[in-house]
Structure formats: C-alpha cells, structure tokens
Amino acid sequence: MNKISAEKTLLQYVPNAYIIRPSYLYGPMNNVYREAFVFECANLNRPFYIPKDGSMKLQFFYIEDLSHFLYHLMIDSSFEHIFNVGNPQSVTIKDWVELCYETCHQKPNFIHVDSTIEQRQYFPFYNYEYALDVQKQKLILTTTKSLDKGLQESYDWYQNHSQLVMRKPLIEFIDKH
C-alpha cells in the first residue's frame, strides 16, 4: 500500500537514495508461508488446490541474490537509483507448485478452484500477476540462482526449521470447505 507515495517522499528528503523493488523473496530462513505451504502440502501428500488453470505468473528472487545485488551496488555504486530486482523469468503458479512438490520428491494432484472463492483463503498469493522488468539489475548482477536450486535450499532449511514459519490457516480453510 502506498509504496510509490513512500518512494516519492523518500526522494524528497534523500534525493540520492537507492530504491530496491524486489519480486517475491524466497530462500533459507524465509518464515513467510509461501513455499513452506507448498512443501507442507507435498509432505502430507495432499492434493493441491490451485487457482483457476494455474497460468497466473509470479516472479521470485532468491534472498542470497538480493544480498549479492546490494553488495555490488554498494561497491560499484550506480547512476541509477531505482531498481526492480528478481529472477529474469516469471513462472506460472502451476510450474512453481510442481517445482516445490518435485523438491519434496512428490508430484502434485491439482484441484482447480474457480474465481468464486477468494484466492488468498487457500493459496499464499493474491490474485494478480507479478512481473518486473529487471534489465537494470542484470547490468549489476549478471546471474541469479535457478528457481529449482533455490527451492531445494529453501526446503533443506524448512525441514529443520518449519516451526519458525508463520503459518496461515490455508490448510484449515481447504479442509473446512
């Protein structure tokens, strides 16, 4: 909410500030119930309730890649001061869920849910596509970790730290409805 307004206010007071606009962050130590939710469904061998046909696209950014980007920005500095950051490619939610299940050595059984049920009740993302132009980022950070490798590292962390994840009642909603 009001992110653009906050950016404008910041630049009024600090004209040379850097503004970083990340896509969805993921990786070890992520306590947000996104990939952890899918890992949990896979580990419990649950069918996966997916919005509509699963073609909505999301864009992710591995937390370590964000750290590398910020490091390079501080060392090399830049004339640019506003950056969208994320993996160059977006992925459909269906492909993302399949990668998460594959990380858990499972294959999802999808149950498609129509738009009459609010998506955030049973799925960890809002109903809008997320795709940032990261061309400026690629001038500073030329490579990023692949989503499959990043998800594997996320899962490795999750297996030993699932109690640190801030669960939402997604599974409870699915079971109730």
Give an overview in words.
This protein is α/β, with parallel strands linked by helices. 41% of the residues lie in helices and 15% in strands. It contains 7 helices and 8 strands; from the N terminus they run αββαβββαββαβααα. It has helices spanning 3-13, 35-43, 63-76, 93-103, 135-140, 147-161, 170-176; strands at residues 19-22, 24-26, 48-51, 57-58, 60-62, 82-85, 91-92, 110-113. It is globular and about 50 Å long.
User: Taking all residues together, what is the mean pLDDT?
Assistant: 94
Strand proportion, as a percent range, falls in 5-15%
For the termini, the CA-CA separation is 30 Å
The count of helical stretches stands at: 7
Properties at a glance:
alpha/beta, 7 helices, two-stranded parallel ribbon, 177 residues, two-stranded parallel sheet
List the helices and strands and how they pair.
Blueprint: H1 3-13, E1 19-22, E2 24-26, H2 35-43, E3 48-51, E4 57-58, E5 60-62, H3 63-76, E6 82-85, E7 91-92, H4 93-103, E8 110-113, H5 135-140, H6 147-161, H7 170-176
Structure described in brief:
This protein is α/β, with parallel strands linked by helices and 177 residues long. The chain is built from seven helices and eight strands, in the order αββαβββαββαβααα.
